[in-house]
Each structure stands twice: as C-alpha cells, then as structure tokens.
Amino acid sequence: MKRSVVLVAVLLLCATAVFAKEYQSSFGLTFNAPDNWLVITKLELAGNPTLAGTPGSGGSLTPEIKGKIESGSIEFLYDRTTSDAAFADNVNVRLGGKGSVPNNSDAVKTQCTQYAQALAKSAGRTLAVAKCDTRELGASRTFYVEYEGRVAGTVTMQYQLVRPDGKLLYVTATCKQSIMDKFHPEFEAIVRSIRFN
After folding, report:
1. What is the pTM of this model?
2. Residues 112-139: what's their mean pLDDT?
3. N or C: more exposed end of the chain, with fewer CB within 10 A?
4. Is residue 2 part of a domain?
5. How many domains would you assign to the chain?
6. What sections of 19-129 are H helices per DSSP?
C-alpha cells in the first residue's frame, strides 16, 4: 500500500513538472508556472511586447503597470483559465528593501497586527485577515498572510521571502473567492518552485 501511495505521488509530481515552464525573473530568481498562466516579466515583455495587450481574459495592462514591468520593479502572472471580464486572477512579484521574517510567536503576532492596520489604512476600510503566520518553504522561513481582497468577492494571499542578499521578495496573489480551490494550489506550486540564482 505504501509503495502505491509513493508511486502515485511521484507520478503526480512528474505530471505537474511536464505542464510547467521555467521563467527567469529580473529579481534574481527562477520559478515555474503552469501552462495556463500568462507570465509577464521584464524579460518576457522585452522578448514579446504583445504580452502587454493580452493579460488575463484579453484586457490590457495599464500604462502604469506596463512601465513598472518594463523598469523591472514588478512582475505579473495571470491565470488564463479563470480570469474573466470582471477580474483577472493574478500573482504579482516585487522586491522590497532589507527585511526579515519574524522568528518567534510574539514577533509574528506583532507583525500580523501591524499588517492588518496597514491594510486598513491603505484600503480605507478594514479587510478581514483569515490567516497570518510563518511557514517553512524548503529551508527558508517565510511570512504568510491571507485576507479579504480590496475588490469585493476576492481573496489576497502573500508570501514574504528573504533573498540571500537580505531583501524581501513579496509574492502576492489575488483571485475570486469562487475559484480559490483551483487557484490556491497553483499559487502554492509557483511559490514553492522559486529558486534564487
């Protein structure tokens, strides 16, 4: 029985690997994304400028977002199978300054409180925080928060990872609540595939 379970797990991992492509980020990392995702990094956009006109379900990037991608300050991934005219389910990646992940329960509680306060201030209303904790990602400790999205009917999830140079990498996903069961595992797989160069 154990051998069958292990075999099924190995086959599932192989199947996932077949349907994922590796991307090079301008943030000093590589990651894998499923084939149904549209990845718009500085490098991808330079190689294919038409990507700026087709995120999500056929919309286009705003000039502000396109400029941020071209400058290398942010990168976007869109789930082409779940995005629609109302909302493009997405992941964005950006680099912050030097930082760290809280290393004890008191520090986690403090950071979670500060995060909730900052969310409320920037959104102009209280956003319900569903999860806020630290998680192990390979050999690295990360900070994770999941909360009510700014757009009604959406959920936002964010991982904060520390790069080898001490800078924080923010990987933030927002999707419609109705597709969370499909979206969340793919987001987790993308985050877990991150490798710093």
Report:
1. 0.85
2. 94
3. N
4. no
5. 1
6. 42-47, 63-71, 105-123
